[in-house]
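Troubleshooting: if your tokenizer reports a length mismatch, compare against these two reference records.
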Amino acid sequence: MRKLDGMVLGLILLNGGVILAEDIGSSKLSETVISTEKFGTNILKTAKNITVITKEDIEKSGAKEIEEVLRSVPGVYITGTSGQDFSNEVILRGQIPGKSGQNILVLVDGSSINSTTDTGAFDLTLIPIETVERIEVVPNGGNVLYGEGAVGGVINIITKTPQNKKYYGKLGIERGNYIRNYNVNIGSKLTSNIGTEVTYLDKTTDGKKHHSEKALEYVGVKTSYKTNDSELLLGYRHGEKNSKFSGAVDKKDKRKSNSTTEAEEIQDILSLNYNLKINDDLNFIFDGDYKKRTYSSTGVKKINGVFKRVPSTDRDTKTYYLNPQIKYKYLEDSYVVVGLDYSKGKSDYQSQSHKSTGSSTTNTFTNRESIGTFLTNNIVYDKFLLTQGLRYQKIDYKLENRNNPTKSFEHSFEENAYELTGTYFINNNFSTYLTYTRAFRAPTADEAGSWNSVNGKFDVQTSDTIEFGGKGYLNDIYFSTAIYHSKTENEIFYLTKSSGETSGNYNFYDPIIRTGIEIFSEQYIKKFTFKESISYVHHEIDGGKYDGKKVPGVPNFIASLGVNYQIMDKFNINTTLLYRGGSFAMYDYHNKLGKQGGYSEINVNANYSLENGITIYAGINNLFDKEYYYAKCSTSKEELSYYQGTKRNYYIGFKYEF
């Protein structure tokens, strides 16, 4: 670790000296964000510890996937216990591994890609980072605006829109020891009001271990129609991913795979976004989409003494989503937003067991319908901004168990979310805030279908959070910080036989407490930009048989340090150091199997742009080939499996823009 610190310090001292930087930090505070309010507000007015990642940030970071660029965000932890190389799980503010897809809401252009009609999980690898304009990460925010699922927060991915050019495009080729990537983007302004663009990507990623591969093919089309007072965006995205699961590390041969699973996932999304300025005081927004997702996997099983590749899981899900909103300004800087959202989905799910005959063990069909309405009111008085938010939501399930009709059920939930915030503007460059939120989520259709009937409890998870924070810019330094305390009741867990329970989903018996602090800063020093992120969260179960135990799989401490050196206008070098503290293994609720060690890695990359539109770039991830593992407790007995982290890998590529 000392060697890494020395290297970073050397980079800091190189060509040292402080000069007056451009007003980057000040412009960050005034940057418009849409995750906390779809009509747009700026970071200074946002009563959340929001992080904005621009396309320039992405290019400088050298990130190949969205989850990679999220690693430096305060409060974000990436874990790799899924057994899929280069496809990991994103954890925000100490949420439970294995449940992040249900506790974090991921939006693409305003519409959720989490489908609560099936598992609720999200797959960021189905969204090529080449299509991303910006990413907004809002911890502890979004439940009032977006509804259930945003308990931990919101990750809002905004993709690129057609440009105001007659013709434009980009071609890219990238190769490395793990990666092969070809992508093309072509657009045109067809008329004075209409623009369109098409994106195609073909990407293959191989892991170091045997039976580890991911192949993604993506097609996206986006068309815009603009007038003086309105904008209509129509989009279509098709993603097809074929993958092989590497599984846990073999004790004798770390390259050997203990998994035989192969999977195919296909996702088609049709989306519509409409924004209308009715007059100076009244605006209207409408978002809607249709999503179709199919997932199928196979595995090798021994049937009657012969090994065969047989079906394992099949899922077919279709969902609709509608979300109209109106913003009315009743005073110069005060306004109210009223909205409605409706979603309806169907999921056909089959899971096979082939220990002997290959007979089906799970065969369900689920209907899930949700309707919600919300209101937020923003009042400005002198240097204060006061916001009040309220949501009501009704969720209906109807699950048909075809194999065991006695386990079919219908269920309804009605729940409210609240938000009260106060922001004080010290001056044009500083603000501080205090906020209280009550968030909730109901079990997804998948969780409801595999609920533990022994416990019997089947309820909504609720979380109450108080957060105090601030952000500002002074002397070429931008910073944001937050301190928070949350209490979650009826948290939805997956408990296992190894914890002494009957395996299945539960509402946890006792509250879970999380208290944390997040600090983020950027400094602009001559040709250098430095970024630091430090997060600490204390998490524990409060009462009962697990009293005082830590949430398994979640470290207390995470940090990152980034240095970008702009050698010249067209040439920059970027270095990022990541550190993650130790944690108990996933599913080790008793904390019996010992705390697993943390890890650190350092990534470097460089970009050089030529005058003719060509950019050449290269990088190395995990420069020193630091060996680290994610630990997971067996679901049936008290023993650990280990999943290998990123090995050293390099890439080189070029892109041509016109």
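Reference record two:
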Amino acid sequence: MSKLTLLSNSSMKIRLSQEKGNLKELYLKGARWNGYESYLIVVDELKEKTYKDTESPLVLLQKRHKKKGEGIVENIKEFKGADFIVKEIWKLNRDSLSWKIEVSLKRNKRERTIQLKQLIPYPKPAYGLGVWSAQSQFPTKIERVGGLHLAYGDVCFGTVIPAITLYKEKKNVGLTISKPFELKTSKLAFSFQDYRNQGVEIETTLLGLRRDKPAIVEFIIHPHQGCWRPGLAWLYKKYPQYFDPPNKKVREIEGGYLFSHPFIKEEEIKSIIPYKVKWEELHVHFPYYGQYAPEEEKWENIISSSENLEANYPEFKGSKGIVSAEIIKQHIRLLHKYRIKSLIYFQAAGDGHLPYVTKKFPDSIAKDINGSSFNSPWNSCLMNSDPATSFGKEMLKMIDRFLKMYPDMDGVFLDQLCYNALDFAHDDGITMFKNRPVYSLWHCYEKPVKKLARKLHRQGKLIFANGPYNIEVQKDIDGHMTEGVSWIDVIKYLCISKPLLFLSYYKDAYQVESMFHQCLLAGASYSVFPYPSEGIKKVLKSYLPLVEKLYGRRWLLEPNPVQLPEGCDGNIFRGEKNDIIITIVSKRRSILDEKGIEKNLKAYVQFKGANKVKRAYSLGTHYQGKRRVKIKKEKRGLALIIPEHSAATVISLIR
């Protein structure tokens, strides 16, 4: 039997093989977690060889170090016949375990692409294991995700936080595994084996093994209670700068949002004033994508020159025309007259109008493996705005011009933080595809976004963004928009402390109500369009008092804090005045239908300080004003008896 090296503290204990260096045993809260041992796989794509530390021949040099508050084991692994050396570091801190891999190329060996696969083992039995990640199908059970290859960094099908949580609710134990947010890497995915197999393989692919620096990956494992929320709470505590809005004044614009253009009429603005619109996104003020601060005195706006843009966005009807900086300034003054803030549309990378960028910045056009551009809507293509490119240099200058042109704007609406592709025309220094240096485009946002946010925040202005690709690209952003219902269940996890806006292109009152249901579940603000119909006005009037309760909210991330009746969805937040807010939604009900009202609905909550709650009241969609909610102490929490509930209810607990 292999000898084992022990690292332990009050929350975790691990044993590592002295023969292979891999994790053999993992204990949480004194009980063994892992039903299998971990492993490390290195795939050399140049030699087309795979090395697995539990099976392949290797020479291991293991050292144990001790630092105050830390236990460290360093494994140097040299696989037989490999052109690289692997340094593996296991570090046990007070609240987490770090598993770091550094792969270094041997002298005079060719650069190449490698893959790293690290197994995080399941417990036995795995059936019924809870699973969470920042994606719409989570939280769920392990038996529902077997075979899922969950990519990091895609709002459509992946996760926007580089983390997963596994937990046993009945045993009240779980762990969260995360890449350090500050660590730049290539392509990351979590590959779930089914519940009869060993665990989750964390895959880092397209990783360049270069002569001048090692390829590095690292994951941190944090133990906690048997719920996904404490894992997210730990990430928030560890990386508050990624979750908190840099400009706290962004809370002032929680409320109604207007999708706008330079030629909107004052009558249109007046039509939405009763619905508490706080800000606008000023769009189509620019001549073409890729140029948002023209140096000309006047220019034709993009609606006038682009085919089908107005057809796809009927909200822009009547927005064609000649634009100038003075016209925009007049527009901002009009909005300010009605106490509506103006955030002007901008992109820091993303789209470039083909006739414009082909002439001006041909070196900056992102190219696919065949040397073709990545086409995007409105006769545009994807651009690389890294300052090493000519377009990147222009982007940094454009930011200065843009802020100088519109000194009275209240901030910037930053679009298309969701673009990513492999750019074969450039090299980001990290990524390689089939042994060839390439550029993962999300890296090109880093310097332009940082400059834009820094300059805006110095002036006390705001920056709101649309659908960020991952948590790193949005670090300096104050708040987020989710454009359409499919993204809100993803972006909401980036907004546990930041404001969230739901842009719904609704057509009728039922769609407006669906928007508000999503707002209540995620803690989001809402969108309003001019001249609402009578049916839409009715929905707005019913839901606005409920949504307003959520302004300034933060997610409550304690273990299992709320249990709702069957057939109801909901969430729980900590309010701006430190009250606890519970939202309850019955999606199959509508205030527009003639359906019954449920009476004496029962919910259960538990959180720190629950015993100090003195009173509770509810707001509902079928009545006006507050109604008293009965409170009964049960177990470690409170039972809430809600007098009446129809489509949606918001409860406030006052201490």
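Descriptive notes for reference record two:
- The first strand starts at residue 4 and ends at 8.
- The CA atoms of residues 287 and 301 lie 4 Å apart.
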